[in-house]
UniProtKB/TrEMBL annotation, chains A, B, C, D:
Its EC number is 5.3.1.14. PANTHER family: L-RHAMNOSE ISOMERASE (PTHR30268). Keywords: Isomerase, Manganese, Metal-binding. This is L-rhamnose isomerase. Residues 98-272 form the Xylose isomerase-like TIM barrel domain. GO terms for biological process: L-lyxose metabolic process; rhamnose catabolic process. The keyword Isomerase applies. GO terms for molecular function: L-rhamnose isomerase activity; metal ion binding.
Length: 408, 408, 408, 408
């Protein structure tokens, strides 16, 4: 939907008048929206797919530098994506200082460092949990190397997804693996410097199909408790069993002071890695309602990161839509009438309380998020502007030769 | 959220101007909204609960007549709920003609007749599928009696939910039960008059926990194929396994010319019977997108019925919210830019097509549905008006004595 | 399947010879089987059902004393069920000393005390988490009363299932409810005497359908951590999301030294409360494999309790089958060739390790468990003996008058 | 577990005596077991994995011929696997006559032909359902080519898995895609010769994550109804939503005379493609109980095929275990006391009927299946014999050079 500047301005005026009438302090809402930050992952700019096929797309980056160029385009259009998560070894370069400088030159920083403990041949039966101490040592060394890379690029986050698990009952001992994991993490944990944090991600299943060593938030949390305060839990929205109330887990991890960050995406079935908000935008809104309720606890330390796979759709457009979905989710959450909500909750007015959320959710916040993007130097209509910009055609030509990057 | 008439009028003007700019024919949309009909179920006005507890609420009807009085209040406030489904024997009265006349006097009609094949002691191991022919005969007789009641109250719908199933592997034969079911339904089916239809509901599980004789849409459809054209499938939104794409089933049943009706509600886990749209309003919108796409196929013959349990919330308010949620879902679906959608689909523009739906979904349609309710003689703010009306207090007093109706 | 004594003896000889050949120390296995204890719940002897119907059965107890009589029959036939869990207020009697004495006279003891925090009208929106402090106080008082009852009947276990939760997003605050819960439990926790323990049960959903305050093991565990060492987690096999690896959770809770007990049952869909082992006996075996692996950690303090609903089948027969299923699961787990398993696991022999479990699981252990029951004074064929005994007919006659007990 | 001949013989004698005592006609059971046939898939001998990693194993075939060599080893050891399904283009060879001759020389035949409609770049948004008629034509041509290959290699089965679907709501029209699919299949269907059949597989999700065009058995069945009697449904055990009662679907498709075949595997979460029977052997048994009950309907025309991925375990050993699991499942199902089962079912003896199944399931049938394998020229202990044979080491050496085959 394209819209003239005059139309947009008029829509913004109508919305803000309505919000003001409803008692919303629009200036405060806009300030919060301007402070929102979303980290995009380098790997989402590369090719991805399912076990059945990775379809190539034209213009896909051939180097980590080109991934940062695409990420910079996303930041340019949205204004809220100044950092880029990298994955080692997919984004290994000879000179990480050069990567950091390139990022800086594009107005970006290097975000979370994501170690890879699942693709080396040695890891067929696990990495940090593997029965063979030599394999565990290899995994530990990789984590130490990632700590060093983090320091080199100025990142304070190590984001660990442990793919370890088993496929058959009896294949290995749950408890021995757990103890191996705790032991193997002590050295990389101790190696963290002040300000550095280890984010521990859990996942219900895949690539292991009988058990996963860190299968739910409880397993991640108890591991973090054993490691120490620099270890925190990372919530990937697609890593739960069907029906799990994710917003409750988010609230509870904040209450435990152990919510380290998010991997945003959405799913209908398993870990589908679809565009965040595309299957149930109400659930995404509810997660942001918890984050807004937590106030400062949710803004200073939590890493808001996207982790998606654009298998069949344009990658940059998919990222732009993800970012605007996240902006809209936050915007709606900021409109929740907190005093009315608390009154209804304390007064046992079930539907009254629910309807306070509905009032916020049903509001069409797009004029507000468009305005905030413009304030930040981005675009009112990022996807429309991107389509009109010729960027996709240009990189398709520039990057026609060479090998597009993917997960391998 | 209460709103002055002037504010509402101004919001309506702003919305319709925006829609007109987007190419929407607002008059046509409003006409479709005025034609929407939603049947409310008598039993939702009575007490309900879980196996652990049925909590009583004040003012709950003590007779089927009082249920119709509450339903009339819902229709008065919304303008789109002129019929009421009844359940036999819960709503059995000595004189169904009197019930029909009472309904008429309230501006209502009697909707679908819902036979009960799950509460008689004889039905412990099934009804139409029971191994004992005497029990099957009892169930068949009940269906025949319901056919007669339907004719007596002027209803053309029998809405059959078959709770039959087993709890343990081996308890009974899937296939013998299937054949018993088909045989037992032949007589009640043959007894249907011109214009009468038998709606066959399926359900994934509960109250049976190993197998359910009609567990999914395929089992209901193949049964209907065997019975004849007056048998059609009823889709209850809460009767599917986790993750099932319900809108696809809706589209496919329309394509098979066998979609007979809906039982609207929502669920996060099992057959939770929550307020429709309360867990994933986007999914409800997508169902309506299919219905709107099907055009006439979806308006003339499909029975749009609510089937919910207001266990912890006010029943009439819960019904009002359900109705407005359904109005808003339809309104959003009517705003979908069909030519743009078709263009994007045929042009393999994945995100372009998806965003056409998002544009419609994100629109705040509440001014439009409020206007339509007013056009129909209802209220802009049904719940607010209801709360202010004193109805709840009045019936709480009037109905203080006697026994509130529930599922038994 | 009935079997002559000679046939049974010959089957036992063949089995034990085969086991001895495989290196199994049969005497040790039998000793472990003789030490197995399974607590049956009083409420399973009463009528139960779904929200749609509670079907009555003949001969159902009319008093807590008659429940103990049925439980004594189960113990008499199996030899491993000497304790009976009770539920307050369902099993409230004027004189708990008399109940204790009656139990003793039947060779039984009173097991876990199960407080009821979900059926009082006050608990419509929760109990210990309720927004109203008066309701929370009522719930706390009930827990204190249950502590006293426990002491009066000589039980050291309070088994708390908290049904609290909400049905709609926004209905209440996750975190405020959590804090209310922790606060409300402090006094009953402090009231526990030496040797008494509080078992905290979690449940995925039902009766609440949006969120449950203790929805998974992580929520129960973090609560126990806050309360202290006398609070432990109770695992009900039917209280998990689909696909959850329950045996892993069991192992992990033992490793955390917080596994307090089980509620055994089985499920295919939700909390179906079917006979334990009836939907996936391999999963039940795997749980026992973890318990056997944990050795002493799993025998001294863990409460092994059944929690089931025999909705359509004979209650006492269903209980007998449950108990024999549990005996067989333990027997199979005791046959696992641990040295071979460890060798295969450490040697990364995936299928070798898995097949060690299969070897144990596929063994027909029924001659062994029959022998153990006889050793304990029970019966080789408990259900056959029960059917032949006339007990069912006798109590059907004796208990023909009066009101059968159920969940209310 | 290795076992001497004498021990095995003695175990067989003990078992058959026991079975005879229970009224089982052992000779008939053995005859049925000798008639069992299981088709193994060529692709399972090649490397496989998840989207995260395909781990290579030593000795993996480099050509379709080498896959047949491995399959011949499986047949040699088990006696029941004389045919091998192939996948086009993975198994495309210049001269299919040569492949057929090679198969014959190994005692094998070529089984079902599996077209690939998911890996060509053209298929990113679908194949037979694609919006572009040129892509649909390409897919149709591939099916026609597969028909020709089938005739060339003497196979009468085309086994079609359609991966088509969409990732985002609105991406394409459910109904237009359905009509495209029906239209595109008419020509390949009409091209089938007498005796040839088209097996239509359904799958809940993956690789598409919003909707799958053939997502459940109902969608496959209604498609087959439209095509004609040579189209039948294929049931892959891993292609259902959580909790779905697969044995009921099997029974129902037989009743509809549309069950064409199986893809055997097992799953705990999604389409995990694990060794059949490894997560719930009781469920596999129940499927065979239905097949045995269907008698001739289940033996003549149904294709029993394995479809698995041995990602972390030895591929040939995994196949051997799969085959013996299937033999044991059938053996147990053949032991069900049908007259007793029918008596109990018709007499409403819930637990009596269930226990008839338990009696069969709990029987240790391994001596019986070992005997049958020996009768057929196979091995009592296929995996033990294979491990001792040196085959794995030999092919690891022989196939050290060149590229191992996998899914691409």
């Amino acid at each position: 939907m394209t819209m003239s500047d005059a139309t947009r301005s008029s829509a913004y005026d109508a919305l803000t008048q309505d919000l003001t009438r409803r008692g919303v302090d629009v200036a405060t809402v806009e300030r919060s929206l301007r402070q929102q930050r979303i980290e995009t992952p380098s790997w989402a700019y590369g090719n991805s797919g399912t076990r059945f096929r990775v379809f190539s797309q034209p213009g896909v980056p051939r180097t980590p530098f080109e991934k940062f160029a695409d990420a910079a385009e996303v930041h340019r259009l949205t204004g809220v994506c100044p950092s880029v998560a990298i994955h080692i070894p997919w984004d290994r370069v000879d000179d990480f200082g050069a990567l950091r400088d390139y990022a800086t030159s594009m107005g970006l920083t290097v975000g979370a460092i994501n170690p890879n403990l699942f693709q080396d041949d040695a890891y067929r039966l696990g990495s940090l949990c593997h029965p063979d101490p030599a394999v565990r040592r290899q995994a530990t060394e990789h984590l130490l190397a990632c700590n060093a890379i983090a320091r080199g690029v100025g990142s304070d986050l190590i984001s660990l997804w442990l793919a370890d698990g088993t496929n058959y009952a009896g294949q290995d001992s749950f408890i021995e693996r757990r103890h191996r994991l705790i032991d193997a993490l002590r050295e990389p944990y101790a190696d963290l410097r002040d300000g550095q944090r280890l984010l521990v991600e859990y996942k219900f299943f895949e690539p292991a199909f009988y058990h996963t060593d860190l299968a739910d938030w409880g397993m991640a949390l108890t591991l973090c408790q054993k490691l120490g305060p620099r270890a925190e839990v990372l919530v990937d929205l697609g890593h739960h069993a069907q029906g799990v109330n994710v917003e409750q887990i988010v609230a509870l991890l904040i209450d435990e002071e152990r919510l380290g960050g998010f991997h945003f995406n959405s799913r209908k079935y398993a870990d589908d890695d679809l565009i965040v908000g595309s299957t149930n935008p109400f659930e995404l809104f509810l997660i942001y309602v918890e984050l807004v309720a937590a106030g400062a606890a949710a803004t200073d330390r939590i890493a808001y990161m996207i982790d998606q796979s654009f298998n069949v759709e344009s990658k940059i457009e998919g990222m732009l839509l993800s970012v605007t979905n996240l902006q809209e989710a936050l915007a709606r959450a900021l409109l929740v009438d907190r005093p009315a909500l608390v009154d209804a909750q304390r007064g046992s007015d079930v539907l009254g309380a629910h309807r306070v959320l509905l009032d916020a959710f049903q509001t069409d916040v797009r004029p507000l998020t468009a305005k905030v993007r413009l304030d930040l130097g981005g675009e009112a209509d990022p996807i429309g502007t991107f389509r009109a910009s010729g960027y996709a055609d240009r990189v398709a030509t520039e990057r026609a030769d060479g090998t597009a990057m993917s997960w391998t």
